[in-house]
Amino acid sequence: xxxxxxxxxxxxxxxFVVFGFSTYLCFTFFxxxxxxxxxxxxxxxxxxxxxxxxxxxxxxxxxxxxRNSDKVPAGFVVWQNRSPGTTNLVKRxxxxxxxxxxxxxxxxxxxxxxxRPGTAVLRLGQVNLKLGQTTYAEMNTEQQxxxxxxxxxxxxxxxxxxxxxxxxxxxxxxxxxxxxxxxxPLEEVRSYFAAYKLNISTVKxxxxxxxxxxxxxxxxxxxxxxxxxxxxxxxxxxxQEQGGIVEQTTTRPGGTQ
Length: 257
Hints:
By secondary structure, the protein is of the alpha+beta class. The protein has helices at about 1-30, 45-55, 115-125, 185-195, and strands at about 35-40, 60-70, 75-80, 85-90, 95-105, 105-110, 130-140, 145-150, 155, 160-170, 175, 200-205, 215-220, 225, 235-240, 245-250. The relative contact order is 0.10.
C-alpha cells in the first residue's frame, strides 16, 4: 500500500518536471526565440545604428528634432524610444525611433545695454541664467537703464551663471525750500516754478469772497518745507464757481510741465 502511494508521488513529480521543462522549451524556441533584446544605440552614429538594426531585422527611424547633451557628441544618437537590454524584447521588423544629439547647450549672456532692470531679470530667467549683484550709479539719463554687465554680452557661460548689472539712474534733483505762494496768481507762480523745474501737479478750485479768480489761497508742501523736481505740488486757487473742480497738470520727465 505504501509502495503504491510512493510510486504515485514519484510519477506525479516526473510529470510535473516534464511539463515544466516542455513549457520552458516551447517559450524559449517559439516565443522567446522569435524576439531579441533591444540593442543599445546611444552614442552611435546614424550609419552604425542603421547597420546594427539591419543585422537584427529592425528598422531605424531618425526623428527630425535634436536634444542637447553634455555626454553625446552632436550628430550621434542620444535617445531611443525603447530601453536597451534583455529585459525589453522586440520582434523583427520593429521600428526603433531615435533622436540625435545637438551637443552641449551653449548659453551666451544677452545684451542688456539700455534695457530696464525688470526686463533684464525676466530675460535672465528665460535663458537659464540668474541675477548677480546690482550696482546703481547716477548718470545723465531720464530713467533707470542698464549700462554694463558682467560677464559681458555674448560670453559663453554655464547654466545658472550669475550676471551682475550696473544700472544708471537719473541724478538726484536739486533741493529747494518751498516758498510762500499764497496770495500770488497761479500763472505767475507756475512760471516761477518752471524756472527751477518744479511742477504744480494738482490745482483745486474753491470760491473765496473778496479775491479775484486765479489766486492761490492754500499750498502743499507748506512754506519752508524741502521740495524738488520729483515732488508733487498742490495748490488751491480761487474761483467764483463752487464745485471742487480739480485740474490735473501733465508732468514731464524731470518735473517740468
